């Protein structure tokens, strides 16, 4: 079994972390694999164990034929059984399918479904590309249901498969005050403003805490609006905006709790990483988050956009640090047992065998 992954960049993001996690897991299992990055390597590239398995195309635009021919040469040399295309890399992957018809093409759709996505990003063009896609994997069940309803493929060719984390847990660093981590790129749907408003409510009560908002500046205007909001609300000693970091393992060791404040999600890898790191968590009730947390058994759930509810949940953790620590430990056990790399690989192998009659084995 030979697997070629294709993704646009390795800038910090959920799909990108999954591509890296899969590459590292395949490497550890001695499954021949390569990871082709269309545009730029980004910060996450340094996390890949086998650097020789990574190829960068330097793609400048959709019609960059020089980069596409480079991709074609890589595929010709590697001879994959599976082409696993993440998110928007499916467009070039379909182009490859015309040339390498024997390889099975999997599209891994990481986008969470919401009314906003359906209206503003319906991706109608995928309908005519569907005949060349052999299987669709989605990061949450609602996205799988959406594509079944849209008749993109038959229901048995659209599979939900939960993301998984890959993290080297580091020794906890003692914090001066209770510190929250919100690990998400800066985009409006990630809920940074809701978290800032919740922090204002906590600040007004006199509680001592910090909230670290860490992510890539995907939307510069959103970043600047968040920065201005922090300044206007007098939160400079409580809320901190930080650019994306590759050393997520170290970042997790420097905080006391993890937050997901998104308006929509698939299955955020950050939530799973919080679990591996043993952090207590608060999450909005979106995507697969309530499933991961088993409707509140392993963490607090609040409604998206509910700054008051988020503030109340944060206050609860601050006021009960030992209870919070114990909650994080239970969550850690749950993630290791139900969402770890071995669990993902078992399900992935089953999908390959059921759909393509191919075993995920070493060559």
UniProtKB/TrEMBL annotation:
Query: Could you tell me the keywords of this UniProt record?
Result: Glycosyltransferase, Transferase
| Residue ranges annotated for the Glycosyl transferase family domain, each copy included | 170-329
One example of the protein's molecular function in GO is: glycosyltransferase activity
**Keyword Glycosyltransferase appears in the UniProt entry:** yes
Would the keyword Glycosyltransferase turn up in this protein's UniProt record? yes
The Glycosyltransferase subfamily 4-like N-terminal domain covers which part of the protein? 12-159
Superkingdom, natural source: Bacteria
Record-linked InterPro entries? Glyco_trans_1, Glyco_trans_4-like_N
**Under which EC number(s) is this enzyme classified?**
2.4.-.-
What protein am I looking at?
Glycosyltransferase
Organism of this sequence: Algoriphagus marincola
